[in-house]
């Protein structure tokens, strides 16, 4: 059942308390409450997801709750930017781009190697993928033959996954470009089979024309109604602690209703375990406030040390994004009219009203689209040039293996992030460096440790990341240089500072300058409570996700992944949560 206030909770003793009702937290709430004898409390700082139309319309995608939204934590970064994360049941799965991607087999085999636990290997996580995924037909009912490999998908899991729900003008251009240059841009039937390299169709967490967030899937009414599951909204935890004289025996969560700093501080106990699922920022913030972290940082904030661990909040590993936008000249007959790009809806309230009406009545139409892209490509750096090979070797190749991309790019039929800056139509190409070498951190604000933590994304601090982005950027232009795209882009004007780069004939120094001013976080960070082997000299949790140095506490969310995935990371978070539930249950059987 959902509760809005602590005083309305009918129980005060629970077997498990899960802190954070996000992507991972909703999975744990569902799985741990499958046994009706077990009482599970899920604490979520934000409000309800169910019934919020703006979040369930797929087209709103990353526009649903961008910076400034009430569903976004709106946390600033130390460089003056923001780091988005969901502040609502379902967490970031309720506000994200919905790209469904499992990483590469190498990603998982590296997690297994770092943790010394075969259970994280690609072949061994397949059962968790099956528990998570429910592959469904797209909202437009088109024939999906040849757009995916049915053999690698499950139809029995919880999160709905579908191929392109609404056609785009870019579908044909993408397909033709791949046919024209198969050696450079090979077709990939299904990037979710462990070997994502190549160019193919995007799969999205969309079901029946609606966003299939973790809250929609794992906390659907039939699960929420379980009498042994208690979900408390607007409950923001400040720390975990011990109710006994042994400070490392963690059994209590301290939280307040509304914002941290409220005078009404409540504590509740879990008889079995507390699971932190507050995400890549929230989890290290809670650990630090609980006295688990680097000694100097804790002393600076006057927090008594429960267990010293220098790794907490470190190793913030993210993707690096570059948005290239081209303003299309809609006066030319052979370029798309405005009606063919997303600006038709984002800039015209009347057309938006029409398609909203269609979505409300039949859950079909343009708003069932993920609002971003129907295709994506993943590539490795071409090392046929010995100079490139030497340079890559000098940096040290950060990819986990030959099946893993260095970078990816996706063409977007409209302006990618938010509203277009002018009244125009756009083509965007977002290029992403997938395995970056820069590492950021989440740390306490020493003068206000319970206030928002300091997020230092530290993007581009390692020169490899800029070098790899240069290659990704040039390759995305090589893609746009294929015949179908050349025709589409004729007479278009480069936007967002691209024109000088193109006019210079892609001068290296200008590209670098452009990268330094226009790249941003992929908002895909992981790693701030990394899982490593029990005898490792770094890391925050062991392979079974138990926090090193204390008892009664686990972490299950993006923060435990020691390296970011070579594709978008949401599915990896689902796998972590599904396996966490199994690991926890096996402790008590
Ligand atoms: C805008 C955006 C777009 C993205 N697009 C994609 C995509 O297309 N595909 C993809 O694979 N990945 C995408 N990602 C990344 C992906 O969504 C995240 O990696 C993943 O959802 C993280 O899951 P999590 O469980 O670790 O954290 P979250 O889902 O963020 O959950 C953490 C939860 O804990 C709550 N919380 C935090 N602190 C506290 C506290 N102190 N007390 C109580 N509750 C607390 C939060 O409110 C939140 O609900 C995107 C992310 C963002 C932000």
UniProtKB/TrEMBL annotation:
Catalytically driven reaction(s): pyranose + acceptor = pyranos-3-ulose + reduced acceptor; pyranose + acceptor = pyranos-2-ulose + reduced acceptor; a pyranoside + acceptor = a pyranosid-3-ulose + reduced acceptor; a pyranoside + acceptor = a pyranosid-3,4-diulose + reduced acceptor
EC number: 1.1.99.29
Presence of keyword ATP-binding: no
Binding residue positions for FAD: 88
Molecular function (Gene Ontology), one example: flavin adenine dinucleotide binding
Compartment list: Secreted
Listed SUPFAM superfamilies: FAD-linked reductases, C-terminal domain (SSF54373), FAD/NAD(P)-binding domain (SSF51905)
Swiss-Prot/TrEMBL keywords: FAD, Flavoprotein, Secreted, Signal
Residue ranges of domain Glucose-methanol-choline oxidoreductase N-terminal in the record: 14-320
InterPro entries xrefs: FAD/NAD-bd_sf (IPR036188), GMC_OxRdtase (IPR012132), GMC_OxRdtase_N (IPR000172), GMC_OxRtase_C (IPR007867)
Cofactor(s) named in the record: FAD
Domain Glucose-methanol-choline oxidoreductase C-terminal: 437-577
Pfam families noted in UniProt: GMC_oxred_C, GMC_oxred_N
GO cellular-component term (any): extracellular region
Role of this protein: Catalyzes the single-oxidation or sequential double oxidation reaction of carbohydrates primarily at carbon-2 and/or carbon-3 with the concomitant reduction of the flavin. Accepts only a narrow range of electron acceptors such as substituted benzoquinones and complexed metal ions and reacts extremely slowly with O(2) as acceptor.
Quaternary structure and partners: Monomer.
Family membership noted in the UniProt record: Belongs to the GMC oxidoreductase family.
Name assigned to this protein: pyranose dehydrogenase (acceptor)
Native organism: Cyclocybe aegerita
């Amino acid at each position: 059942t959902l509760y809005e206030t602590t005083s309305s909770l009918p129980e005060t003793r629970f077997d498990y308390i899960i802190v954070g009702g996000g992507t991972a937290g909703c999975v744990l709430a569902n799985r741990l409450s499958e046994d009706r004898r077990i009482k599970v409390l899920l604490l979520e700082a934000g409000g309800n997801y169910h019934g919020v139309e703006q979040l369930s319309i797929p087209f709103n995608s990353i526009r649903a709750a961008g910076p400034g939204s009430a569903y976004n934590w709106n946390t600033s970064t130390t460089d003056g930017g923001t780091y988005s994360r969901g502040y609502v049941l379902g967490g970031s799965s309720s506000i994200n781009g919905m790209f469904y991607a499992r990483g590469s087999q190498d990603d998982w085999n590296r997690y297994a190697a770092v943790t010394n636990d075969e259970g994280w290997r690609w072949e061994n996580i397949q059962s968790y993928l099956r528990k998570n995924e429910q592959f469904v037909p797209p909202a437009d009912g088109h024939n999906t033959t040849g757009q995916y490999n049915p053999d690698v998908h499950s139809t029995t899991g919880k999160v709905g996954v579908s191929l392109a729900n609404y056609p785009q003008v870019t579908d044909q251009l993408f397909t033709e470009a791949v046919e024209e240059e198969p050696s450079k841009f090979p077709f990939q039937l299904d990037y979710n089979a462990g070997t994502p390299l190549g160019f193919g169709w995007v799969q999205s967490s969309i079901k029946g024309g609606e966003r299939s967030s973790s809250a929609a899937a794992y906390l659907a009414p039939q699960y929420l109604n379980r009498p042994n599951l208690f979900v408390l909204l607007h409950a923001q935890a400040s720390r975990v602690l011990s109710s006994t004289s042994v400070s490392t025996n963690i059994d209590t969560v301290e939280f307040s209703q509304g914002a941290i700093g409220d005078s009404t501080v409540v504590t509740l106990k879990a008889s079995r375990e507390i699971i932190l699922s507050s995400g890549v920022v929230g989890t290290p913030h809670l650990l630090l406030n609980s006295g688990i972290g680097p000694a100097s940082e804790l002393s600076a904030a006057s927090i008594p040390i429960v267990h010293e661990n220098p790794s907490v909040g470190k190793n913030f590993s993210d993707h690096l994004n570059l948005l290239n936008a081209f303003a299309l000249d809609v006066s030319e007959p052979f370029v798309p009219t405005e009606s063919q790009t997303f600006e038709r809806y984002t800039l015209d309230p009347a057309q938006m009203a029409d398609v909203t009406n269609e979505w409300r009545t039949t859950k079909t139409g343009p708003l069932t689209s993920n609002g971003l892209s129907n295709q994506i490509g993943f590539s490795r750096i071409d090392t046929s040039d010995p100079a490139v090979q030497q340079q890559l070797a000098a940096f040290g190749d950060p990819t986990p293996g030959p099946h893993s991309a260095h970078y990816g790019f996706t063409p977007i039929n409209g302006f990618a992030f938010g509203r277009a800056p002018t009244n125009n139509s756009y083509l965007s190409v977002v290029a992403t460096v997938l395995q970056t070498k820069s590492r950021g951190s989440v740390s306490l604000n020493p003068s206000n440790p319970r206030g928002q933590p300091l997020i230092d994304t530290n993007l581009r601090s390692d020169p490899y990341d800029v070098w790899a982005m240069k290659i990704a950027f040039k390759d995305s232009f090589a893609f746009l240089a294929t015949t179908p795209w050349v025709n589409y882009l004729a007479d278009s004007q480069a936007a967002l500072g691209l024109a000088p780069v193109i006019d210079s004939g892609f001068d290296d120094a200008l590209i670098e300058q452009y990268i330094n001013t226009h790249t941003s976080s992929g908002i895909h960070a992981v790693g701030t409570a990394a899982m490593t082997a029990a005898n490792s000299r770094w890391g925050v949790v062991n392979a079974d996700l138990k926090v090193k140095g204390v008892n009664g506490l686990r972490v299950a969310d993006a923060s435990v992944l020691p390296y970011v995935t070579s594709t978008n990371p949401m599915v990896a978070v689902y796998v972590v949560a599904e396996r966490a539930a199994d690991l926890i249950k096996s402790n008590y059987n």
